[in-house]
Structure formats: C-alpha cells, structure tokens
Amino acid sequence: MGSLNRSMVRSMLILVSFCFALAALDIVSADFANKPALGINYGQLANNLPSPAIAVQLMKSINVGYVKIYDADPQVLTALANTSLPLVITVANQDIPNIASGSSNADQWVQKNVLPYYPATQIFMIMVGNEILSNTQIQSTWSQLVPAMENLQASLAKNNLDGSIKVTTSVAMDALASSYPPSNGSFNSDIAGSVMQPMLSFLNRTDSYFFVDAYPYFAWSSNPVNISLNYALFGVGTTAIQDGQLQYSNLLDAQLDAVMAAMAELGFPQVKLAVSETGWPTKGAADQPGANVANAVRYNSRLVSRFSASPPVGTPRRPGAFIPVFIFALFNEDQKPGAVTERNWGVFYPTGTPVYNIDLSGGNQGSTYTPIIRSGTNNNTFSAPVGAPASASATASPTPTAAPASASATASPTPTAAPASASATASPTPTAAPTPSTVQQWCVAKTGVSNMTTLQEALDYACGAGADCSAIQAGNACYQPDTVEAHASYAFNSYWQSTKSEGGTCSFNGVAALTTSDPSES
C-alpha cells in the first residue's frame, strides 16, 4: 500500500510539473492579453544604432510592454532572452512564397527562428510579411499570404506551440477602399474576397489578432483643410464627429472603427484588432507641417494614456475592448528613404538620448523639453469650417516609398477624413512666464560644450520645435560660420525669442545659456 501511495505521489508530481510547463508556455500569450503597457517597434534601418543589448535596456527604461521587430534577428532574439518582454517576430516579405509552397519550408523557418530561442525569448506572435498588400510590386505574393500563414500555424501545432504563439500579418490603412464615415469602412475590391476573407477566417479560427498600421499624422498632413490637427492629436475640446449613433472625438478611433466595419462587412465583426504601428514624427522639412517634438509628445502621451487605461476604453464601435498598440518607433533610423519625417519617428536618438520622455506603462508623461505649439516653421495648424465634409481626394494615400520591411512607416495609410473642428490646436497650459527684464538677452550654445552629438541633437530639436532655421541652411545669410556651435546658437535663440513669453526656456538639456552679449557682433 505504501508502494502504491509513493507511485501515486510520483504520478501526481509528474502531472503537476506538466501543468506548470503548459502554464509557462502559455504565459506570453496571457501577458499580451492582459498587459496594459504599450509596445514598441524596434526597426534597424540605420548604420549608427546601439547594440541590441543596449536597446533592450532602453526599452526597459520607458516601461515597454512588448516588442515588435521586422525580422527574426538572432542577436535581438538573444538579447531579449529572460527579459519577460513578449516579442513579435516577422517573416520577410520575400520569404512568403517559399513558406507558402510547402509545409516543410514552414517547418524549417520555425526550426531556425523560433525553437532555438523559445521560451527563454517570449515569442508570442509571428507576423507574416509587413504591409505586403500595399506593395503592388509584389502583387503576385498577395495570394500566397494566407497559405503561408496556414503553413506556419500547422508547423507551430506540430511543436505544440499553436496555443502560445499566434500567426498574423500587418495591413496598412490603404487596404481600405472607404474609411469615411467609419461605418462605411470597406476593403479594396481586389483583395476583399481573395485575400481578406480567408485571412479573417484564419484569424477568427485561431483566435489571433488583425494588425493594422494606423497613422493619423499621414491622414491629417494629406488633408489639413478638412481634418483638424486637434482631432488628429486626441485634442481636448474637439467637436465630436457624428456617425449614426456613434461619436468620434479623435481620428485614430475613426480609423480603427473603419477597419472594424470593413471586417464586419466580410462577416467577421468580432475578430480582435491590434495597432501594429502608430506614432508621430518629431522632425520634418519645411513642407511637412506639424512634424515636431511638441506634436509627437502630445500624440504619443495621449495615446499611451488612452490605450493603457484600466479597464480598457476601446473605441465607439467596440467600447471596453482591449486593443494592443505598438508605437513606431524605438529609434530614429538614418537609412530610411523618403521624406525627412521618415527618419524621425523614434523616441530615442541612436545615441540612446531620449528625443522626449515617455512612459509606455501610462506613468509619467512629462517631457524634458516643454512642448509649445505656435504658428511658424513646421507648426502649421490649418482650420476649416465646422462640418466641412472631406473631399473624395482626402482618401488618397501619399505614394508609398518602396523600402525594406523595417521601413514600414513609409507605407502611407488611407486617411480617415473628418470635419475640422473650429479649434485646430489645443493650446497647452503655459508655464509661468519669466519676469520681463529690461536687459536684452540672447540664448546661445554654452562655450566649451565637448559633446557635439548632444549639441547636434539639441539643434535638431530647436529646428523641429519651432525655430526658424532657414537662415542657417547652406547658401543662406547665416550659414557661415559652418559649425555646430554657431548653428545651434542661432537656432536656440530663434526658438527662445519666439517662445519665452509662453514659458519657453533656454536650457536644451544643459547645452544652452542666456547671455547679454549680442552674438551677431562677436
């Protein structure tokens, strides 16, 4: 009898150990479903980024909830081991036909990119391709997308991982033929039945997420007459847009609900939705209004506050729904092609210095720099009559730039147009203005700054946040002397002189100071 009891105990211990093992395997998917902190996109289209190990430390410093990468880089997978950071890895667009062609190819991909790292690295999602439905140059791949997803799902099942690792893909807003009003959302006719219907069926059957890249910045910047900046920035006091019984006070909600309406039109109203990319650029050219640090702070901090809320807020169409969100991006990436904005989406410079401060868990949302929106360089805040309908051209996407997977922000989404509110820009509560001085002062770069990288970053910030830097461009009046110190002094002073009455300061992370000596006379 004692022998039987010992045998039973051993059996029970084995069973308990097995249950714990299953729980350990399932914990990453459970984390995704319950973690309110937002995720980050970790792109590497640059030649000056820190090591993956340092990148992971930076992620932790801003309380990242989960991570998405645009490949299955072994160095990144290794760096994320034992960090408890859930990870989304990506199948390159060019690998989709091979994986779709046979289950053995999918098995090889999983054996190479998943099994050596999991579960130490908490891979919980495989993204099959990146915005491939926006790339007409690989249109022949579109029909192979769902077969590739099916083959990877089967391979995960062979390894008893299909309950812990889900399979999906990412779709840009230009997959929609219509997005305004949101209830009219529908997919393009060339993909609706052939690609989207079987994809949604797959996602519904496997309890996975439909991932969409949604950028209110692109929608607003392509149609600023009919879409107010305040509406794009989650601004307080925005005139709500009525769509039947639903009201929309911000553009992202309208974009997401347009996607949900398109899914419902194909018979899948309950497929779970996630935002694979969203964000706001911190710098742009003169013809890219609104791309600056102040607006990026506003958009991303309000985004975090909204989507990290507990209980979840959801959208007008799905109130209370948990919608995972990944901010684009961790770093500014200097090798991304296209406009200036394309290289300026990061929350960190490649040096590891924050472009602005943010806490993706929903904690402190303050910024090192005081964000001040004002009229002037790169801060245009267009207005239009309240209730002005969007023109048909408002749904036209900017021409996307062909780029590697990590340059996904170049695929411009179809805007969800909305009438502009009369209040185009929500003015922040100004900090106390300094006591006026009868002594004239200028804000200049401190003498003897040794870290030229920090000084250059502060110069970039000033030019992006409202300083008029046209005079220090090549060939213009103040280009010479062509030194970082001279250009920084000009930009710092331009910024400070135009914002000091609203609380603007002369600090720039400690590399600037006030002087009573006119720098133009030195």
Describe the model:
It is a single chain. Strand 4 (123-130), helix 6 and strand 5 (166-172) form a beta-alpha-beta unit. The chain is globular and about 75 Å long. The protein is built from 13 helices and 14 strands. Residues 6-31 and 365-437 have low confidence and may be disordered. It has 522 residues and is of the alpha/beta class. It has an 8-stranded parallel beta barrel with strand order 1-2-3-4-5-8-11-12, surrounded by 4 helices. It has a two-stranded antiparallel ribbon with strand order 6-7. A two-stranded antiparallel sheet has the order 9-10. Helix 5 (103-113) crosses helix 6, helix 6 packs parallel to helix 7 (189-206) and helix 12 packs parallel to helix 13.
SSE blueprint:
Blueprint: H1 2-34, E1 39-42, H2 52-61, E2 67-69, H3 74-79, E3 87-91, H4 96-101, H5 103-113, E4 123-130, H6 145-158, E5 166-172, E6 176-178, E7 186-187, H7 189-206, E8 209-213, H8 216-222, H9 229-232, E9 241-243, E10 246-248, H10 251-265, E11 272-278, H11 293-307, E12 325-328, E13 442-445, H12 452-465, H13 484-499, E14 512-515
Parallel strand pairs: 1-2, 1-12, 2-3, 3-4, 4-5, 5-8, 8-11, 11-12
Antiparallel strand pairs: 6-7, 9-10, 13-14
Helix pairs in contact: 5-6, 6-7, 12-13
